[in-house]
Amino acid sequence: MVNSKIIWLYLFTLGYCFIISYGLDQELKDEEQITWCTVTLEEQYKCQNLTKALERDRALFREDFLTLKCLQGFNKHDCMTLVDAEKAHFVTLDAGDVFIAGRYNSLIPIMQEQYDGGFKYHYAVAVIKSGTLTGVTSLRDLRGVKACFAGVGYHAGWVLPIHVLMKMGGMQIIDCNNHVKSAIEYFGPSCAVNSLTDKYNPIGDNSDKLCSLCTGKVAGGKCTSKDPYAGYEGAFRCLLEDGEIAFLRHGTVQQMIRSKEFRSVQENRFELLCTDGTRKPISEYRQCNWGTSPSDAIVTTSAHNYENRQRYDRFLKQLATRYSYSRQSNYNNTQFGPNSNNNFNRDSNYNQDYNRNTGFQDYNRNNQGYNPNNRYDNNYGRDLDNEYDMFNNSNRNLKHDSIDNDYGVRYNASADPSFYEK
């Protein structure tokens, strides 16, 4: 009887230890694998190509290697929710979405894009077709025009334009908690994707005026991130086809006219509208812009412990070192080719049209990490309690006063603006 009890106790202990060991092994395996949340099909393809490159080069990563999985969400907000729920580890966000992700989903930035020359921002510009809007001599004359936005929440493509128009263009604040209503009252038929989503239409009373120019044909896709007019590329397409003004990043026009889709479009078909009502060529964005916007960032949940975040940081830095675009002092058209200078892929089946911004950017080895001891550290230098106020003292360092025209020489960077819009 005693021997029987001893045997049962031994078996129970052995089984318990096996369960604990299995649990620890499984937890370790989970920590060895990360999931990147993507939104567009292009972004998903690029992520999948990265997984192949990682498997090929895993020995080079040594102890920093992590297995990468790609999970496609419906939109950025879906990805934010997945990361918050720890069903995904990373998502790449526009600066405007970084603010939203921190405020509503407890996500924190772990790495920020930094372009050759040390730049961590884009200029926000207003682009019109050359020779149009002749009656617009000040920003107040923009009332009623057909506008193309990258999407509600985009920093350069929504936040800054709305802020500037409230400060200088006579846009009235209709609802302090819903600036979409101010844009609805101010503009004519326009396209600003996500203007009818729950986050930006909290009580469901927004009109569809900011969706009237959008062209989505897929069921449930119109005026969402799936719309052809979504994002900075979509806003450019909207301007070309239907709109009168588009709010873009400074390199979007050059980036798009170099793509296969718009190869026949000439840059001189467009011009910049300055905040004083004057016009300038697309290339003079430093003198004619509506503010500067921080570059995109990779975010993760603040629920990850310090050790895991440190490990993710090391992994991302390895990615940046091994798979970024080559650093060139001059722009080279071949950097946008199917295989050229992109070590993510050496496969001939690589998607050849990566001129559009996939959202999964190629981070160079100088990309900025974030202070892991301060979950609120964003390195953007902005006062996140007042994201609209670029005139706030804590936001002044985002202005371009310290950048002069010879920056391409001083920093040995490309003087071509599209280089910073990869």
From TrEMBL:
Pfam families: Transferrin. Residues 34-368 form the Transferrin-like domain. The chain crosses the membrane at residues 6-24. Residues 332-351, 362-378 have a biased composition (Low complexity). GO terms for biological process: iron ion transport. InterPro entries: Transferrin-like_dom, Transferrin_Fe_BS. Keywords: Membrane, Repeat, Transmembrane, Transmembrane helix. Residues 352-361 have a biased composition (Polar residues). Residues 327-378 are annotated as: Disordered. GO terms for cellular component: early endosome; extracellular space; plasma membrane; recycling endosome. The keyword Manganese does not apply. PANTHER family: TRANSFERRIN, TRANSFERRIN 2. This is Putative melanotransferrin. It comes from Xenopsylla cheopis (Oriental rat flea).
